[in-house]
Each structure stands twice: as C-alpha cells, then as structure tokens.
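Onboarding guide, step 5: your first structure request.
Type a short instruction followed by the sequence, for example:

Predict the 3D structure of this protein.
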Amino acid sequence: MLKNSLLKIMNLINDFKRIERTVYVANTEPKRFENDAEHSYELAMVAWYLNNCFELGLDTNLLLKYALVHDLVETKTGDFDGFMHSGDKDFENKKLEYEYRGFELLKSEFTDFPEMLQSIEEYEEKLNQEAKFIYALDKLVGQVGVTGINKRSFADCGISYNSAKDIWDRKITKDSFVYKILQEFIFEWTSKANYFAKEDFVPAYKKNRSIPKNSKPNS
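The system replies with structure tokens like these:
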C-alpha cells in the first residue's frame, strides 16, 4: 500500500533524527547535541553552496545525494566519534564491520529504493570526486562547527594536535579544495595558545559516548 511506503521512509528518517552526535547545536539552552539528520542537511547545504559559489564543476545532484545518505547506516550502528579513536586500527576495523552489517540491513529493508543504496555504496567506496568531496567536507564541517560556530577549542574537546593532524592528513586530503579551506583554519587554530590538548582525553560531555549505546547493528 502507498501509505506503508511513506511510513517506511519516514520511520527511517525519524530513526536518523534520534542518532545524536558529539557536537552541540550552538546557542541552545539547555545545551543539546545535534542529530544525524541536522548534520546531513547542513553538509548538503554547505556542499551545494561551495560548489555553486566557487564554480567547482561538481555534480550537485550527486553531492546532495551523498551528503544526505553518508551517515544513514548509523540508524543501525549509532554514531562513532572518530576523534576519540584516531589512529586506533582495531576501532577502525570494528567500525567498518558494524557499518557493513548495518548497510546489509538497510539493503534488506529498502529493496524498493535502489538509488539510495547505490548512493551509499558510491560514497563509501569514494568512486568519484563528488564522493571524495563529501567525505572530506564531512570531516571539516564537524571541526568548524565546534570551533567556529560553537566557539570551543580542540582542547575543550580533548583533542591533541597530533590527533587532529591525523584526521586532516588521512581524510581531509581526499579533496584539494576542502583541504585548501582547512589550511586557512589550521593557520588560525595553531596561532592560538593552548588551543589543542597536550594529550588526548575524554571530556565530561563525551563520557560514556566512546562506543554508542546502540553500537551493534539492530537485527
């Protein structure tokens, strides 16, 4: 029935809205974490704006699709804060395993939405420059959201320079334009005293969130 199709996709989106990240929404009282749906919308709008404003020549349709679906597997796995496990190969492998199993569940549920599933696969495999752009921009938007919008330092978040640089070098370098933007921020961040933690630590607001409560794919 038509109503069942509508309810199915809306239930997925609702599940997406329930996945909290470890980034606060600025100027909220009491403070609250942003959710995956808000983050994905923000990423889509930023990508569309940059591509249009700077005439990057990327396919806007693909950018929007990849931004909207890039975290959808987290409806099955929960959100993982990559900075809390930067360079941890065991964690990276565990995350990939959970994401694969989560994607398999999505595939079994959305056989009627192959375009969504294809977009997820293309993004995860970084098959084209649009996917690489969204992958890199996703990491940058998260950091700028904390430092530029929420006005918090890396030190406030328990992130050392080495951990930040690890993410920059391994992930944001996937796209040269995004990395160019990052370099401007790096100049600003490194010019400030005590802007990075001397060593990584888990700040109070991230306690008990290093592994999400629903970190295993729902079967």
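Each response can be followed by summary notes, for example: Confidence is low (pLDDT under 50) at residues 210-219.
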